[in-house]
Amino acid sequence: MFGTHSITRLVLLVFIVLLLSQCAPAPLHKDAELKDMKYSAKLKPKDFPKEIARLEKIAKTHSDTSVQARAHLQLALLFLDYRNPAVNYLRALRELEAYISLDPEGGRADEVQTWRALLNKIELLTKENNVIKEENQKMKGIIENMKSLDIQLEQKRKKY
Predict the structure, then answer these.
(1) Exposure letters 82-117 (e unless 16+ CB within 10 A, then b)
(2) Which of 18-22, 70-74, 81-85, 132-136 has the lowest mean pLDDT?
(3) In whole angstroms, how far apart are CA 109 and each of 114, 119, 124, 127?
């Protein structure tokens, strides 16, 4: 049925195809400036400001909105990263909202909406915390005034 010549040709053809498949260039993505999302795991704390500046530039100046969207998403993740010495939840929320506005389809993903809900809650709790801190400072001032008044009252009692 098959001669040795045709089997040899078939084996040679398979070998050449396998060899050439290893030499094929990797596909070039239109967002080559953006690395894989998992790259941030390799960032050191000192590298965050530089990487954030690089992504901010891409988000503002790149001509392709899908690349801008991914840059905003990566910025959001960098601002949330526990290794970032300048974690900023409010800024992460703003970057996530920019991503959603540029990529509504990606913004509907459950994971993105979960992050958005959590960041909105963090923003609300931060505002409430700031109000409580202000009230606490006012109360400390009132307590100091009351101590001062108590001391003055005690001094007047001793005079009489």
Answers:
(1) eebeeeebebbbbbbbbbbebbeeebeeeebeebbe
(2) 18-22
(3) 9, 15, 23, 27
Q: Which of 39-43, 78-82, 121-125, 127-131 has the lowest mean pLDDT?
A: 39-43
Structure-block tokens of residue 113: 């909406």
- pLDDT higher than 80, residue 154: yes
pTM attached to this predicted model: 0.66
- What is the residue type of 77? L
Cβ atoms < 10 Å from Cβ of 142: 10
Cα(114)–Cα(120) distance, rounded to whole angstroms?
10
Is 72 exposed, middle or buried (CB count within 10 Å of its CB: 0-12, 13-18, 19+)?
buried
What is the structure's pLDDT at 28?
37
Structure tokens at 109: 């993903």
Number of H helices, E strands in the chain: 6, 0
3-state secondary structure of 160: coil
